[in-house]
Design goal:
The protein is of the alpha/beta class. It has helices at 16-19, 61-75, 86-89, 100-115, 131-137, 144-160, 180-184, 192-216, 238-260, 265-274, 282-287, 309-315, 339-353, 379-397, 446-456, and strands at residues 9-13, 79-83, 119-125, 166-170, 221-227, 231-233, 294-298, 303-305, 357-361, 402-408, 428-430, 442-444. Strand 9, helix 14 (379-397) and strand 10 (402-408) form a beta-alpha-beta unit. It is globular and about 60 Å long. The mean pLDDT is 96.
Length: 464
């Protein structure tokens, strides 16, 4: 493989609520993630005093980040995607002044990355928001939350303008359709109209963040972040082809608004036919014209779409409502493995938007078993990542502008879906189990040395 340019940003991606721990230290407020002790697929649960959760400590990145960043540097990382915990900066979300201790923590983190020549890519909101905004305003259903988010965004742009030049607004923004509390802070069982109104407020807030970033950090680039839910038709029946087009538009809609600056016609038709009337002001429409500089996305799996009602009934309740593809193998967690799909989605997004792309999440969650000497032989992970990166190289040869690749969870972390440690993604093993027991000691897996070689050779060591 020789397709990867020298400027390609190799690295990894983590999220504050899955690695930091220190859940109430130095003035941090309670977030929506803190009341999801069993992950985004679990029920929300108010925390009783003294009640603990594995995410309270997580892998203790809050205190151990110098050691972890040193390991990332040893692999040759050029970029680390992190998120800022909104509640470290504005604990309740609606304060007039930020929490200085929270701001100082991220100063230290970004300075440590700079010492190792690793560029930070920072997500403003990664599957969490202040619980105060949920309890007092109803989450993103309230238009006032737009202003609170803009205040937060402007605060961190001002503070870190000389340290961070790559920004993302909302993590997997289309997850709002599948997990409303996680994505838009809506409790209970909101109807579709309520969800899309909250989504609209979030899209306006995203555009305001883009505008603010361009004003405050003119030499920075700011992107959106999509959950790449690529669907194939289960059969070549025209009805299945049409259903697939509709399913793919369900997540591409978010990219259309953030990249093109307005609501697409197919979505306006959907709202009309569903009787959904959104409150979109003239000011909103103008704000949405502040479009992102690049598109980032996660890619883990693909699925199929069909009009077969019997098959659709079987998948109701699944997060992404995907019918299994009979031609693909699956991971231990049932996620189908499709390297070729990564090349397809890269070309799809490039053809649709003609904006640079960044793969900010991709990886294999698996149960790793250390040998007696501590070695973790994760050749299955190496195969998975190798095959996906080969397809990234093919997309580069296709002419797609790909800025970089940050694998998900370069160090083992608490999974988002079910708050498990046993679902491991990392090149670095963390001694911690699902009950929170362990020493938190770090050790290098076989994939650590493999990824180091991939980065050092700019992909030349990949095996087609």
């Amino acid at each position: 493989m020789t397709a990867f340019p020298k400027s390609f940003l190799w690295g990894g991606a983590i999220a504050a609520n899955q690695v930091e721990g220190a859940w109430l230290e130095e003035g941090k407020g309670v977030s929506t993630s803190d009341i999801q002790p069993h992950g985004v697929l679990g029920a929300a649960k108010e925390r009783a005093e003294g009640e603990s959760c594995i995410k309270d400590v997580a892998i203790d990145f809050y205190h151990r980040y110098p050691q972890d960043i040193e390991l990332f540097a040893e692999m040759g990382f050029r970029c680390l995607r992190v998120s800022i915990a909104w509640t470290r900066i504005f604990p309740q979300g609606d304060e007039q002044e930020p929490n200085e201790a929270g701001l100082a923590y991220y100063d230290r983190l970004f300075d440590e990355l700079a010492r190792h020549n690793i560029r930070p890519m920072v997500t403003l909101s990664h599957f969490e928001m202040p619980l105060g905004l949920v309890k007092n305003y109803g989450g993103w259903s309230d238009r006032r939350v737009i202003g609170y988010f803009e205040r937060y965004a402007r605060c961190v742009f001002e503070r870190y303008q000389h340290k961070v030049k790559l920004w993302l607004t909302f993590n997997e923004i289309n997850m709002a359709l599948h997990s409303p509390l996680t994505g838009i802070g809506l409790e209970g069982s909101p109807d579709e109209g309520e969800i899309y109104q909250a989504v609209h407020h979030q899209l306006v807030a995203s555009s305001l963040a883009v505008k603010a970033c361009h004003e405050i950090v003119p030499d920075a680039r700011i992107g959106n972040m999509l959950l790449g839910g690529l669907m194939y038709p289960l059969t070549c029946k025209p009805e299945d082809m049409l259903k697939t087009w509709e399913k793919n538009n369900g997540w591409l809609f978010f990219g259309d608004v953030q990249c093109r600056g307005s609501y697409p016609g197919y979505m306006l038709r959907y709202f009309r036919e569903k009787g959904i009337q959104l409150n979109i002001t003239e000011s909103d429409a103008e704000i949405l014209k502040n479009t992102v500089d690049f598109i980032s996305f996660s890619y883990y799996t693909t699925g199929c779409a069909t009009t077969d009602e019997e098959l659709n009934e079987k998948i109701r309740g699944n997060v992404l409502s995907m019918v299994s593809n009979p031609h693909l193998p699956s991971s231990e967690w049932g996620w189908q493995i499709d390297p070729t799909g990564l090349r397809i989605i890269l070309n799809m997004l490039w053809d649709r938007y003609q904006k640079p792309l960044f793969i900010v999440e991709n990886g294999l969650g698996a149960k790793d078993s250390p040998e007696a000497d501590g070695t973790v032989n994760d050749d299955y992970r190496i195969r998975y990542l190798n095959d996906h990166l080969v397809q990234v190289g093919e997309a580069l040869k296709d002419g797609v502008d790909v800025m970089g690749y940050t694998s998900w969870g370069p160090i083992d972390l608490v999974s988002a879906s079910k708050a498990e440690m046993s679902k491991r993604y990392g090149f670095i093993y963390v001694d911690l189990d699902d009950q929170g027991n362990g020493t938190l000691a770090r050790s290098r897996k076989n994939s650590f040395y493999w990824y180091r070689e991939v980065i050092a050779t700019d992909g030349a060591s990949l095996k087609p």
